[in-house]
Amino acid sequence: MSAVILDRIGKRFTGTGAAETVFDGFSLRVEPGELVAVVGASGTGKTTLLHLVAGLEKPDTGTVSVNSADRLGMVFQQPRLLDWVPVRKNVELAVEAAGLPTGGVDEILDAVGLLEYAGKFPSVLSGGQRQRVAVARAFAVQPALMLLDEPFSALDEITGRRLRLLLQDLWLQRPLTGLLVTHNPAEAALLADRVVVLSGRPAVLSQEYTVDLPRPRSPEDPALFDVHRRIVADLV
Ligand SMILES: Nc1ncnc2c1ncn2[C@@H]1O[C@H](COP(=O)(O)OP(=O)(O)OP(=O)(O)O)[C@@H](O)[C@H]1O
User: Fold this and answer.
1) Locate the ABC transporter domain: which residues (predicted)?
2) N or C of the chain: less Cβ packing under 10 Å?
3) DSSP H/E element including 150
4) Pocket of ligand 1 from Cβ distances under 6 Å
5) ipTM above 0.85, yes or no
6) Which atom of ligand 1 is nearest to the CA of 57?
7) Residues forming a β-bridge with 21
8) Per DSSP, what are the bridge partners of residue 181?
9) Protein residue whose Cα sits closest to atom 6 of ligand 1
């Protein structure tokens, strides 16, 4: 049984301008334990796809089936922390909302290198540290499915690189099923088991790459660069 099944979905937005048919008969499956990266030009429907999986949007036609949809971990481009509560409490609140005991929160804060900041307010943290809290919060709810929407694209290159490697480490220690939306072909190649390329309007799955390289992976691995290069060629 697949962890996520999008089966011939249609999705049309009737907003301010002309109606937008973002999906028309679009299908995608994510298998248990698989991390699928979704890349594609701006406006192709990547975030809409994540919203459909998260249940934040409903398809007009077709079906979205998510195994254990009740336990989602989500990381967005912005950390979306509660600025008026300390770091540890930010994570604890999410854990409590998921109905879990908060005993493991310090362990995950330690894993993201922020245990010493547990009692501090998010406002004293750097952008990269705040995003680490967001990553810790997402893992702390022990999600059945992790949804990542451009999680590192608001960070500078070096901080983004560190966080990608951190995510890879966390994923190795706590294997999950996930969908990663990214503009960054190198990030997709580094982190994903499979990269799907969306293009066109309505969006179609125009290419698909299986990244069959052992982990931990290094951003310097020439084999990864080869995948990266092929994805870039699809996007330009
Ligand atoms: N709630 C909405 N109401 C109206 N139109 C929407 C809505 N959400 C998305 N759209 C439209 O659907 C299309 C796909 O948007 P979406 O955000 O999914 O694309 P994307 O691939 O994630 O883009 P980007 O890479 O720029 O974030 C866009 O044309 C957008 O304007």
Assistant:
1) 4-225
2) C
3) none
4) 13, 15, 20, 22, 40, 42-48
5) yes
6) 1
7) 12
8) 38, 149
9) 13
